[in-house]
């Protein structure tokens, strides 16, 4: 992956998370609040929610990219091919091994940006929770 593509992999989830946090803070009216504890609570919530979403999405894409759902996909494809034409069935892989071999050639990777961005947001949420507890 090129250096520019690698940067995109991290910048896009970070921007999405910051955008989500900004909308969350705006909807809660955090900037208009005068109590410091309420502001810290809102900011920690604003970083926690996108952090969890990014980590869970990244983890799901990671396990899906490693073939966790291949057996399920193959089974559904075989059942649905029963109602399709013979020409369509001839194009489909006959065995699970053939299916997995074909899928391994076309697998995508590079979802670590989601995981790292999510972990960063969770870390920031933890910092703001600690500040909230001490304030």
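Sequence proposed for the structure above (135 residues):
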């Amino acid at each position: 992956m090129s250096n520019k593509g690698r940067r995109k992999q991290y910048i896009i989830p970070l921007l999405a998370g910051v955008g989500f946090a900004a909308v969350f803070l705006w909807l809660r009216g955090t900037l208009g609040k005068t109590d410091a504890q309420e502001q810290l609570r809102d900011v920690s919530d604003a970083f926690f929610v996108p952090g969890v979403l990014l980590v869970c999405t990244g983890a799901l894409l990671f396990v899906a990219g490693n073939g966790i759902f291949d057996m399920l996909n193959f089974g559904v494809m075989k059942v649905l091919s029963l109602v399709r034409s013979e020409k369509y069935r001839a194009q489909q892989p006959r065995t699970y091994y053939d299916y997995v071999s074909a899928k391994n050639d076309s697998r995508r990777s590079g979802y670590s940006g989601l995981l790292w961005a999510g972990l960063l947001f969770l870390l920031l949420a933890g910092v703001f929770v600690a500040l909230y507890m001490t304030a």
